[in-house]
Amino acid sequence: MANGNEAGFPRLVMWGERGLVTTLFLDLSQDHNFERWTAFLRILDPPINGEVTLVWSIVEPDFGRRGFGSPDLVAKLIVGGTELVLLLEAKRTTYVQSSRPQCLRGQDGFNSKINGQMELNYRLSLALSEYFHEIAGANELLQEPDWVVQTPYGAAEADAPRYLVNPAVLNGVAAHICGLPLDRYHHVIITTDENNPLEQTQLATRFPQFFDDADADQFGHFQETERVHWTSWNELRGLAEGEFVLHGPSLFLPSFELNKPNLRVDSASLRKELELPHGRNNRGVSMIRLRDAFFDQFEFPMPSSTFVHFSWRGRGACLRNYVHVPRAERRFQTEEILPHICEEVTPPEHRPIHDEQYWHYLTLELNERKDCDAENRP
Predict the structure, then answer these.
(1) Are β-strands 163-164 and 185-191 bridged in parallel, bridged antiparallel, or unpaired?
(2) Per-residue pLDDT tens for 269-308?
(3) 283 within 8 A of 313, measured Cβ to Cβ
(4) Spatial separation of the C-alpha atoms in residues 89 and 18, rounded to whole Å
(5) Which of 51-65, 81-95, 165-179, 264-278 has the lowest mean pLDDT?
(6) Which of 135, 130, 94, 141 is nearest to 114 (CA)?
(7) Scanning 8, 100, 160, 167, which has the fewest C-beta atoms within 10 Å of its C-beta?
(8) Contact yes or no for 352/326 (Cβ under 8 A)
(9) Cα–Cα distance measured from residue 226 to residue 45, given in angstroms and rounded to the nearest whole number
(10) What is the pLDDT of residues 178-199, one digit of tens each?
(11) Which of 36-50, 192-206, 247-261 has the lowest mean pLDDT?
C-alpha cells in the first residue's frame, strides 16, 4: 500500500496543488472499470452523467509560455458513448481569493489567477478544436484562430495570437485531445468554497470571459449548456473516504491531511462536519430498508421490499441495490434518507463495494430473514 497504512510498505504523500491533483487522479485511475471516474464526474456541479468507458489523462502538460500555459490536468474521456475533454484548474483557496477582476486582464499575474487560467484553457480549446494531428503538413503548429487578435484578449496582449510548435507536446499531448467540436471541451475548477462560486452573481466581475469571433462573451452560455463545472476539496475528500477506501488504499487522503492546514477558506471551515441525528457517526456503511413513503416522495426506481446498501459521509450518501447489477444512486442527501429507514443492519464484515458477490448474497440473506420473520409473526 503506497500510502503506508500497513507496516512494511513505503509511505508517499505529495505537497501543494500539484500534489493534491496528482494523488487525486492517481486514485481515480487505479480502477479498471472506471467507477471512480464516473463517481468523480457525478459530484461536479453541474454533474457530467454517464458511465465512463475510456480515460486518457495527463497532469500539468506544458503548452508553453507563448502558448496556453500549463493546465493542472487535461483528460480525454468517453462518457456515455460521447468523447469529451476536461481542462481542469485547482486552487488551495476560495475562488475570490484566487481570482482577479476582469479589468486587470493583461497585467502581470492575471494569467496565473483562476479566471485567467480558465480563459487560457478556453483559448486552448479553440485551438484544439481546429487542430487535426493526422493531417500531414497541418500538424506542426497549434494556434488559436486569428480573430482572437480582435477581441479583448488581443487588446491585452501585444503578441497574440497564442501558438505552440513544440513537437513533443503536439505529438504526445495535443494529438490525444484535438479535433473535437468546441462544445465537447469542458472546464473544471476545484476550490475551497462551500458552494459553487460561479453561481454567485456578486463575483461576476471576476468570472472568466469566453469571447467568440463577434466579441461576445459566451461564458454564460457555457454555464447554461453545462460545460463549466466546480467542486471543492471537501467534496473530493468525502468522495475519497466514501469510495476509494472501500476499493483500496488512497494516495489522495494522506496528501489531503498533510495539505489541509494550507487550504485557505473564508468564514466557513473546511473541517466543519454535518452533525447527524441520534448520535449517528458522520460516516459509515449499513444495509437498510426504506419506507414506502420514500419511494412515493422521490419516485425512486427500487423495490421497497429489499434491503439496499447505504453508505454516507456527512451530507453525501449513496444507495446500491445488490439484488441486481448495482448502480450508485447519489441524488439524495443523508438527511433525506434517514427519516425513511424502517430497518437497518450493520454488515457483519467490512468488504469493498466492488465485492458484488458478497453484497448480493448478504442482501438475499437479509431479505429472506425479513420474509421469515413476517411469516412467523402472530
Answers:
(1) unpaired
(2) 434 444 677 677 777 899 999 988 887 766 666 666 789 9
(3) yes
(4) 10
(5) 264-278
(6) 94
(7) 8
(8) no
(9) 9
(10) 999 999 999 999 999 988 999 8
(11) 247-261
Work out the burial of residue 217: count CB atoms within 10 Å of its CB; fewer than 13 is exposed, 13-18 middle, 19 or more buried.
Answer: middle
In whole angstroms, give the CA distance from residue 294 to residue 306.
Answer: 13
CA distance 36 to 241: 12
Nearest-CA neighbor of 5 among 257, 225, 202? Answer: 257
SS3 99: coil
Cell of 73: 490536468
Q: Take residue 335 and report the three cell numbers written for it.
A: 438527511
Distance CA 123, CA 177 (A): 14
Q: Mean pLDDT, to the nearest integer, of 310-337?
A: 79
Give the 3-state secondary structure of 7-73.
CCCCECCCCHHHHHHHHHHHHHHCCCCCHHHHHHHHHCECCCCCCEEEEEEEECCCCHHHHHCCCCE
User: For residues 55 and 31, is the Cβ–Cβ distance under 8 A?
Assistant: no
The DSSP letter of residue 319 is: E
Around Cβ 241, how many Cβ atoms within 10 Å? 20
